[in-house]
Amino acid sequence: MSKQLNRASAIAVAATMITVLIGASGSGASAESMTPVEIKQEPSLITIPMPVAEAQPGEDAAKAGPHDQADADTLPAATLAALVSAQPQPAELPRELNCLAGGIYFEAKSEPLAGQLAVGRVIVARSKSGRFPDSYCGVVFQPSQFSFVRDGSFPVIQKKSPQWKNAVALAQIAHEGSWRSPVEGALYFHSAQVSPGWRMKRLGRVENHVFYR
User: Fold this and answer.
1) Would you place residue 77 in the very low, low, confident or very high pLDDT band (cuts 50, 70, 90)?
2) Is 1.25.40.10 the CATH classification of the domain at 78-212?
3) ∠ at Cα 10 (9, 12), nearest 5°?
4) For the purposes of burial, counting CB atoms within 10 Å of the CB of 1, is it exposed (0-12), middle (13-18) or buried (19 or more)?
5) Residues 6+ apart with CB under 8 A from 195
6) What is the C-alpha to C-alpha distance for residues 86 and 65, in angstroms, rounded to an integer?
7) What average pLDDT does this structure show over 2-13?
8) Which residues of 163-174 are buried (b: 16+ CB within 10 A; e: fewer)?
9) Which residue has the higher pLDDT, 191 or 10?
10) H or E stretch including 180?
11) How far apart are CA 86 and CA 111, in angstroms?
């Protein structure tokens, strides 16, 4: 009888242990299934539209090196002297530009560049005004206008001189209007050494001349 009880007890114990083991195994699976799992997610790329800055005129040329001469030529000159130096020196000038350069040369070749340009711009302004001949040669050779004119022609020009080269460059600048005169729009001028008492609007003095409109 005791052997049967012992055997029954052993079976009961074994059954209990199997139940506990099965229960523990099931609890472990449940715990695993309920444990938060970290999901690694690649960050998404968010594109934010940004304003595009437009390049300002000349920015690329300003960065140009010595070999980018074509772009560099589009840059505005920093000074009148730089613009004068940048002008071509053709072997032969068209007749009209030759008259304009001659007017600048004989009237103001001893003056700084600003004074020479001011004289050149007066000749250009006269040709467009409707009150004077409509060509540079007509303006320069109009009787009783320029004291250096003799018998409808210029005196001899020293064409290899720096003064003539400046006059040629300034004639091109005055013709193109690529640099404004300090007295832009003037139609008349006289030497600062005289006082003719003109009743016109005085625009100012540039070097050795006083300009009016």
Assistant:
1) confident
2) no
3) 65
4) exposed
5) none
6) 17
7) 46
8) bbbbbbbbbbbb
9) 191
10) none
11) 20
